[in-house]
């Protein structure tokens, strides 16, 4: 460990070239905030979107996960593009496009338009996160400094996750739901103006051409596979699902084979021969998959079951952010005192235990259980995800940092999409099975079974004892679905923690790539 963290002549020379590296990190933090704020305000705005645009349950899931589908399909391609044309250039162009797409989201007038706008936001978002992590890899050559920088990077994502509900909650109480997307604009403007001056440009000095067939294969493959899994989880297997899955899988196999044959591939698939690299990518994917059900549905529980306002729900979720910020900053020191596998496994196990606690959730559950759960989730996520990001970017030479960072982000986004699809189907399956109280018309019953937001609206239109009975039945069913989802997520997280303990044996912070 000491050998890895001791500065060498090469990093010293690089520091001379980038004297403003910490100021540059501050700019990169803005990009992370941009993405994190957007992800969390959507969860808070979901009940308002349900009321205003009246999406079906399936459309609501698409609004939540189409961003992740598109971004997962494009991340590797965009990370590789940044390695070729310049990460700074791609980051600033992507931030500008992200702001423009945010405007489209804010003024969408139908579920279909909002889904399309979220997809465009995914195209822009695919340029941001790989660029930020790759720039950190190139600006900070010393493993100790880089570990701290990645901790700040990860903590800023957690801080953005907190800022989103607070700012979004305020906006939702005073303006229409589309206003939550407009908070991206000032952050984007500041990022572009300041980043143009402070960020150093970096790219692969001999990148080779950007292979467009590989870009297409990556996009088709990721979207096809994720679409198939999502629809199979929601509606069961069908010919359409089978065809989509087969086409996606074939495209990904072709993509991998093509990368092996290219002199300048989008991603060097030989990276996956490195056990530590493959293990932490898998950890990220399964951990995010298991955690997403909590993140996506807890805001709806707090608002539509426990009756909190958007701002109150945002404040209630702050303990998770506080835990993640603190442990994200301390993760590097924790690894040096223990080991990579201890920190990652311990963090994932902490999240798994938190989800187990949520299996006791009831509509009347007090805040004490939620506080404990959210703190455990934050602490575990801060430790695990900061450390996996460090391992991933340290496993490759700095010239390939963009592509490697994109692999990490692909795991996050794919895990999120699969989590919403698979765990969301558990929530919906349990929820839609509730028994409608007697005396409720079929039309109102159908609206109530579509989503918990639809049930709240239907109950309000009924009023009286019938409305109360309908809302109570729906709230009980939604809570039962969330508890079932928490149980499934706990199994995924605890199994992933156990696997990480064995697969990451001997893994160190930093790698031979630091000396390339």
Summarize the structure.
The chain has 516 residues and is an all-alpha fold. The chain has helices at 2-5, 9-17, 21-53, 57-85, 87-106, 111-125, 128-139, 143-174, 179-182, 184-198, 212-235, 239-261, 275-305, 310-316, 318-337, 340-358, 367-394, 401-431, 442-450, 452-462, 464-503.
Descriptive terms for the model:
516 residues; mainly alpha; 81% helix; globular; disordered N terminus; disordered C terminus
How does this model look, in words?
The chain has 516 residues and is an all-alpha fold. Helix content is 81%, strand content 0%. The chain is built from 21 helices and no strands. The protein has helices at residues 2-5, 9-17, 21-53, 57-85, 87-106, 111-125, 128-139, 143-174, 179-182, 184-198, 212-235, 239-261, 275-305, 310-316, 318-337, 340-358, 367-394, 401-431, 442-450, 452-462, 464-503. Helix 13 (275-305) runs antiparallel to helix 17. The radius of gyration is 22 Å and the shape is globular. The two termini are 17 Å apart. Residues 1-17 and 511-516 have low confidence and may be disordered.
